[in-house]
Amino acid sequence: MDVSVRQAREDDSEAVAAFTADTWDDRAERDYVPDVFLDWVESDGPDQRTVVADVDGDVGGLCQAVMCSDHEAWLQGMRVNPDYRQAGLGLRMVEHLFEWAGRHGGTVARNMVFSWNDAGLGQSLAAGFEPATSFRWAEPAPRAGQPDLPVESDPAAAWDYWTDSDARRILGGLTLDDGRSWALSELTRDALHRLADDQQVFAVGREETCGMGCRVRTTESEESTIAEYAIGAWDDTDAAAALFTAIRADAAGLGVESTRVLIPETPRHVAQAAFVRADTSDWPTFVTAADLTDDESSD
């Protein structure tokens, strides 16, 4: 069997769609890869690379890497054709993308796996990733309202709170990336100030700041329009209530139909989000990471 890893092409789309059609055939979720594969190929460039494992001319798997910052790579869409499982194709593709990311300054690579996806979790660890953190989506419904605590668009106060918060420690500094959907990266002071100008930042006040959050984008699908918030972090239920009330009002002002707020996967955060009636997703999502500083890269 002759195996090589090469950059993906448009004419791979039919083969990719065929073997990803039933990726999660035991669940209601449908694989997004067939819908985005051509867009991935067309948008490949200096900060993004989509590859396939070529097995004797057949597409045996695919994976994509993007650079979220000057040192952070994000890998996504790792799929292996069922006809070629147990052949090490996932590892071959990931090694190729680790080398690519290393050449572009990457010192860490991360990916995301749904907690129910046992096969994906095992494949990630086999490919060189290690467990890093986990999160859940809070999904407060948009509606007008006035928080009981002051909530200001103050990126300096939000940053000061974030730096010392348990949320930052639990998440390893990661929040939803502001440039890439479905990717996490390290939140920076500059990014938070930029989001205050371009999107929205929330700092919940009392005697001291007791919560923070920030919106990164709105996205549209065939089903709905969603406002996405990179992080929600707070001290207690009063702060949570104020933060989610502000997020609900912000989303209502945008005219979106739903929201998605990344929160740490801890009993406290999930329970307190539920307490203030910010519905949460049915399962957590795991993030894994690989240290690229020991990888030897070559051109």
Order of helices and strands: EHHEEEHEHEEHHEEHEEEHEHE
Number of structural units classed as domains? 2
Structural class: alpha+beta
CATH class descriptor name of the largest domain: Alpha Beta
Question: Span from first to last CA?
Answer: 25 Å
Number of helices: 9
Mean pLDDT: 93
Architecture (CATH level 2) name of the largest domain: 3-Layer(aba) Sandwich
What is the CATH fold-level name of the largest domain?
Answer: Aminopeptidase
Strand content: 25-35%
What's the story with the biggest beta sheet? 12 strands, mixed
Number of strands: 14
Please explain how this structure is put together.
With 299 residues, this protein is an alpha+beta fold. It is built from nine helices and 14 strands. α1 runs antiparallel to α2. The longest helix is centred in the C-terminal third of the chain and has 18 residues. The chain is elongated.
Task: Give me the secondary-structure topology.
Layout: E1 3-7, H1 13-20, H2 33-43, E2 48-55, E3 58-67, E4 72-80, H3 89-103, E5 108-114, H4 118-126, E6 130-138, E7 151-152, H5 155-164, H6 166-171, E8 174-176, E9 184-186, H7 189-198, E10 200-204, E11 211-220, E12 225-234, H8 237-254, E13 258-264, H9 267-275, E14 285-291
Parallel strand pairs: 4-5, 12-13
Antiparallel strand pairs: 1-2, 2-3, 3-4, 5-14, 6-13, 6-14, 7-10, 8-9, 10-11, 11-12
Helix pairs in contact: 1-2, 5-7
Key descriptive features of the protein:
299 residues, alpha+beta, Aminopeptidase, 12-stranded mixed sheet, two-stranded antiparallel ribbon, 14 strands, elongated, disordered C terminus
